[in-house]
Amino acid sequence: MKVAGRTFHWEEGKCLIFDDSLTHEVWNCSSKNRVVLLFDFWHPDLSEAERKTLGMLDSLTNYQNQYTDHIVERQRQLVREIYQGTEEVKKR
Fold this sequence. Notes:
By secondary structure, the chain is mostly helical.
């Protein structure tokens, strides 16, 4: 794994913590699957007001993602309905 230009090596059975707000990349050169468990931590320098604001922004982002997922699914549904209608017209 490379974080902010520094290379780190994952060791089996050990935890590895890094700041993913920094530019980073990971790779798995082995033939084994790797499972990653992610946790979010507040930066210790954030004030309570900043944490609250970021929490609200995160909630808004989650809401937007759910809304977008709903819109995309509805669009797919409409395309299927149009396609089915086209197929029925061809049968006539």
